[in-house]
Automatic annotation (TrEMBL):
<feature type="transmembrane region" description="Helical">
    <location>
        <begin position="73"/>
        <end position="91"/>
    </location>
</feature>
<dbReference type="InterPro" id="IPR001123">
    <property type="entry name" value="LeuE-type"/>
</dbReference>
<keyword id="KW-1133">Transmembrane helix</keyword>
<feature type="transmembrane region" description="Helical">
    <location>
        <begin position="181"/>
        <end position="199"/>
    </location>
</feature>
<dbReference type="GO" id="GO:0015171">
    <property type="term" value="F:amino acid transmembrane transporter activity"/>
</dbReference>
<keyword id="KW-0472">Membrane</keyword>
<feature type="transmembrane region" description="Helical">
    <location>
        <begin position="147"/>
        <end position="169"/>
    </location>
</feature>
<protein>
    <submittedName>
        <fullName>Threonine/homoserine/homoserine lactone efflux protein</fullName>
    </submittedName>
</protein>
<dbReference type="Pfam" id="PF01810">
    <property type="entry name" value="LysE"/>
</dbReference>
<feature type="transmembrane region" description="Helical">
    <location>
        <begin position="44"/>
        <end position="61"/>
    </location>
</feature>
<keyword id="KW-0812">Transmembrane</keyword>
<dbReference type="GO" id="GO:0033228">
    <property type="term" value="P:cysteine export across plasma membrane"/>
</dbReference>
<keyword id="KW-1003">Cell membrane</keyword>
<feature type="transmembrane region" description="Helical">
    <location>
        <begin position="123"/>
        <end position="142"/>
    </location>
</feature>
<dbReference type="GO" id="GO:0005886">
    <property type="term" value="C:plasma membrane"/>
</dbReference>
Length: 201
């Protein structure tokens, strides 16, 4: 693999990781509601989930969607349902002053973020496009594929952390319970609106 190919791979990983999508909107909301440190497991789970999803696509899982369109429909339905549930969870997150140890007042666990990648349509598009675009044919397939996973994880984590960091900075503005409630309403609506991207595919 040439340096030019490696740079193209890194650029693709950065652009697709840092642009808006369900993961980054949730990280923005989590950073604003729980802070950067408590959002770290969520970020790590996203990167680990992407690595696992890429590996599965390398192993041929992505090919199943080409052969069996019904699986695409089922994934789309599951993604829509999960995004609606996430929107509801964000909407129900109480202001920081009222947060207690409840499910509605806890950030995503790392394993929840890992599993979410498998119903996240944007993650599937990223994984399938990356594997089809940047892997080499023949004996170099798995070597180039593992390099892709390594590059993606290396780029993905700092790229998505920007969103959690920005959310954390917003805590100064979200200094009142009323502002926090309005912010969570906006984030819930934006997360739900990502469903439009799924329906239009």
């Amino acid at each position: 693999m040439t340096l030019l190919n490696l740079l193209a791979m890194a650029s693709f990983a950065f652009v697709t990781s840092v642009t808006p999508g369900p993961n980054n909107l949730m990280l923005l909301a989590s950073g604003a509601n729980f802070g950067f440190r408590r959002t770290l497991p969520h970020m790590l789970g996203i990167s680990l989930g992407m690595a696992l999803l890429l590996t599965c696509v390398l192993g041929g899982l992505g090919e199943l969607f080409s052969r069996f369109p019904l699986l695409q429909l089922l994934l789309r339905i599951a993604g829509i349902g999960y995004l609606l549930w996430l929107s509801w969870k964000i909407l129900q997150t109480p202001p920081r002053s009222l947060q207690q140890d409840t499910d509605d007042a806890r950030p995503f666990a790392w394993w929840q973020a890992v599993l979410f990648q498998f119903v996240n349509p944007k993650a599937w598009i990223m994984a399938i496009t990356a594997v089809s675009s940047f892997t080499l044919a023949g004996e170099a397939y798995w070597a180039s594929g593992m390099l892709l996973v390594l590059v993606f994880v290396t780029i993905n984590l700092p790229a998505i952390s920007v969103w959690a960091g920005f959310g954390t900075l917003m805590q100064q503005f979200l200094s009142t319970a009323a502002r926090q409630i309005h912010f969570n309403r906006v984030m819930a609506v934006l997360t739900a609106l990502t469903i439009v991207l799924i329906v239009q595919r």
